[in-house]
Amino acid sequence: MSEVTRLLRDWSAGNPEARDELLELVYDPLHAIASRHLNREREGHTLEPAALVHELYVRFAEQRRVNWDNRAHFFAVAAQVMRRILVDHARRKKSEKRGGAFAPITISAELDVAAPEAFDVVALDFAVDELAKIYPQQARIIELRFYGGMTIDETADALGISAATVSREWTMARAWLRRALSIP
Amino acid sequence: MTLGAPSEAFWDRVRHLFHAVVELAPHTRAAFLDRECADADARAEVESLLAAHDEAGTFLGKSIWELIDTNDHARLTGRTIGAYRLVHPLGHGGMGSVFLAVRDDEQFSQRVAIKLVRGGAAGAALVRRFRQERQILAALEHPNIARLLDGGTTFDGLPYLVMEYVDGTPIHEYCRGKSTPEKLKLFLNLCDAVQYAHRSLVIHRDIKPANVLVTADGVAKLLDFGIAKLMSDTVPVPADATITRLMTPEYASPEQLLGKPVTTASDVYSLGVLLFELLTEQKPFGERTPLSEPPLPSTITKPLRGDLDNIVLMAMEVDPARRYGSVEKLADDIRRHLSGHPVAARRATFGYRAAKFVRRNRFYVTAVIAMLAVAIIAFAATLRQKRLAEHRFEQVRTLARSVVFELHDAIAPLPGSTPARALLVQRALVYLDALAADAEDNKPLQLELIGAYLKIGDVQGKPYAANLGDTRGAMASYRKALAIAEAVDDPAMLAEVHDRIGFVQQRALRWRDALSHHQTALRLRQHDDLALARTWVAIGDCLYIGRFGDPRESYENALRVLSRTRASRAELLREIARAHQHLGGYFSRQPNQMQRALAHHDAALKALEECAALAPSDAVARRNFADQLVMKATAQNLMHDSAGALAGTERALVIFKELAAADPKNKEAQHDLAFAYEQISLAFLLQKRWPECKRAAEEVLAIRNHLIEADPTNREDRRELSRTYGLLREANEHLTGTEHSTQRYTVE
Fold it and tell me: How far, in Å, are B61, B69, B168, B673, B713 from residue A138 at the CA level?
């Protein structure tokens, strides 16, 4: 993982290319794990689907120990990977289903978890991209909070802004996405 | 979006409006937008977002990770596995979740930890393997080992292990801040447990802080004995997964990382890493791969130099043959160190090291070429880094200096800046401390460090200035400054440190200690007349309040020093006022000297008024002026001029309240308020206006109680409380027959 560490360091030092390189580096192995998990036939084992994503989580958790500064960066990468995994997988499922793009793959269906809201994974991904065109910072916040699982404070640290700002922009971004997803 | 291509300015407007409106109650939003937003398009956008906001509910409220976790845990919590009921999750790791569970029998209720293992068919193999070894593992009975009790498969095929439940803190967290002997003693218990298991031919293989919990009674318990072995025997490592999945690379021995046979020496190595971390409170390798030798623990924590360096290094030898031959030998060396005997571990000489290097390379024949390449690269990198490091050293130092001495001083006079000052100085101190470790003979740097410690101490609890009310913390910081100052040849700085310590001792009512520090400072003072005058006043205070002698001469010495001094007007005025104040306080308590006392108070008041006028935004100057109003009122009350006292204190109260509101964390502002209210209460007492007297005394009581609660070492306010209760009792006695009872004010 020393390559990852080096890229993280370069990225924190302000080299944006390092981030892309890093994403390339970690994306494939992580994606392979997640896809294998998401595609596998159910074996009647309750834990199975979540366990698969957990494995991904453990990979990231290992990175937690690298060092504190890098942790925020790694979770930022994790967020992007998670986002891409979810949407790629949902797209593939859609194309397999009759009705193609019209059949929504909800977050609950994707993860086999009881999400309080049922919204389309691909639609959310699209909406976040749209949001990024107008309010790039809000889109980053969504990515770190929702896909990355970061707290308000962690997000504030990662973006170098105040927690109050994160909280404000998070509120607005949620409203924005909520509206984007409620229009069929 | 029906808006064509709105401009960036448009979206900015929308964003600002949304942030402003979303805070408002729904029924007031329309009026706000009528007033603030002329742009119909922007308004439509904001209103549509508000509508979405109002119905957003829990939308995106939980991250994907939380959804997975909650679901996982929610599904399992409350379920029964074998004889156990899962109560709640304790955590999850690579191989599954761990739950707290209870065994509900009719007779007794036993708490256990259940580890649910994932991995389908591999998990089943794990359980089979466990059954083979359960005899051995379940037989490990030791006070410092959490026992493995049982294992099986849930009805849906999920394998699980039942372990003794330990309610404790990971050992590295438990040990943080503890003394080295305490850490070593706890570590010895751990060695004992590992040694015991080794005798039963069980190797732990995954000793790390997370696997050692310390209970509330201080008993260390090693978890997961034998689990790592079961796992690695039965769970196939997926092609794309590294070996790190099954162990923790930072604590794993080099032979484990290289996939070589694991022996008891591997546990010795992991214990070495753990010991390193306990002693230095840092991981030995940071982000490097642990295939090389660790740094000396004493490079992180100086006092570890010598035995402990050698012990840790010997436990962490790359070549297993060169490590301690057993955990027992490691433990013996630690015991020898604790009792002051020579240890077996010795720092290697160069020749010995060179020989060892060769031998080690032979040991890892396959890695020789790679290691040579790495060594060369590392050597080149070190050279480059050294040059870089020197450059960086200066940069960091310049930055820290600027933060402590420029930024801090710039914001210090602003009301409300106390917490920000503390943060600034603390952050900068981290860097300075790190730099100081590398620059023992660097006098300018050490002076900066002293200055920084003084500043942090001031912010923590310098009496009579804006501070956080942390007397103990202030004393600790000043003592650090003293330790450095005593080694640096700079009498003025040393004098300054002694004076600060004296001031804190005064607040703690240790007058004799305070006096001796101020007297030391006096002897050291040479050219700085302002500081010399301050020291004289402090000596007078200690003599007077500590009842060691007459302070008048000391105070007058201060005035004499100041009369010959050329300094900036404001500074000079401040010191002149201080000397007059203290003389005023002194004379007001001498028989038949009240006119003299008032004259000094007026002289002080005049100087401070001019001082405040020179810098109208200076919170300290305003505070000092108001403080002097109260001091004068004290004298006036003693002369039974209650009307004069009330006029002055009411004026002071306005200023104090303003300052306290602007800086709510500043405890000194609360002291000031308490003193003002006390004089007000006293003045009303003289006028026999009992309800007013009582009300003011209650204000004092509330403030003082609050201060004492926040800083238990603050004895000054505790002492003053008796006066406050006196005032209350007096007022209450005259108010008997009203609904108030005196019982509320009895001292607890």
Answer: 15, 25, 40, 45, 47
Q: What is the 3-state secondary structure (H, E, C) of B155-197?
A: CCCCEEEEEECCCEEEHHHHHCCCCHHHHHHHHHHHHHHHHHH
Number of domains, chain A:
1
Spell out which residues of chain B touch residue A174, defining contact as CB-CB under 8 Å.
53, 56, 59-60
Residue B236 contacts residue B189 (beta carbons within 8 Å): no
Cα dist. B631→A97, B599, B692 in Å?
86, 12, 20
**Known catalytic membership, residue B206:** yes
Of B15, B68, B158, the CB nearest to A135: B15
Active-site position among B54, B156, B167, B206? B206
DSSP 8-state secondary structure symbol assigned to residue B151? E
Alpha helices by DSSP H, B205-345:
227-234, 254-257, 264-280, 307-315, 327-338
Helix count (H) and strand count (E) of chain B?
A: 29, 9
* DSSP type of residue B349: P
Neighbour tally for A168: CB within 10 Å: 18
Whether A168 has a pLDDT exceeding 80, the answer reads yes
Name the 3-class secondary structure at B247: coil
The reported pTM is: 0.39
pLDDT, tens only, A30-72: 555 455 444 443 333 333 333 444 445 455 444 444 443 455 6
Contact B457, B450 (CB under 8 A): no
Is A126 in contact with A177 (CB distance < 8 Å)?
no
Contacts of A47 in chain B (CB under 8 A): 72, 76, 96-97, 116, 118, 158
Longest CA pairwise span in chain B (Å): 99
Main-chain phi, psi angles of B390, to 5 degrees: -65, -40
Q: What is the rounded distance in angstroms from the CA atom of residue B47 to the CA atom of residue B17?
A: 10
Interatomic CA distance for residues B282 and B147, integer angstroms? 29
Which residues in chain B have their CB less than 8 angstroms from residue A134's CB? 11
Give the one of B18, B92, B156 whose C-beta lies nearest to A44's C-beta: B156
| CA gap A95, A142 in Å, rounded | 27
pLDDT digits (tens, 9 = 90+) for B515-566: 999 999 999 988 888 899 999 999 998 998 888 889 999 999 999 998 887 7
Are A58 and B245 in contact (CB < 8 Å)? yes
Express each pLDDT in B354-404 by its tens digit: 344 444 433 332 233 333 333 333 333 444 444 445 555 565 666 666 666
Q: Cα–Cα distance between B362 and B367 in angstroms, integer?
A: 9
Q: Look at A54 and B11 and tell me if their CB atoms are within 8 Å.
A: no
Domain that holds residue A72: 3-180
Spatial separation of the C-alpha atoms in residues B97 and B550, rounded to whole Å: 73
> Phi and psi of B666, rounded to 5°?
-80, 105
For B407, which DSSP code?
A: I
What gap in Å lies between CA B228 and CA B206, rounded to an integer? 6
- CA B523 remoteness from chain centre: 36
Cβ atoms of B125 and B235 within 8 Å: the answer is yes
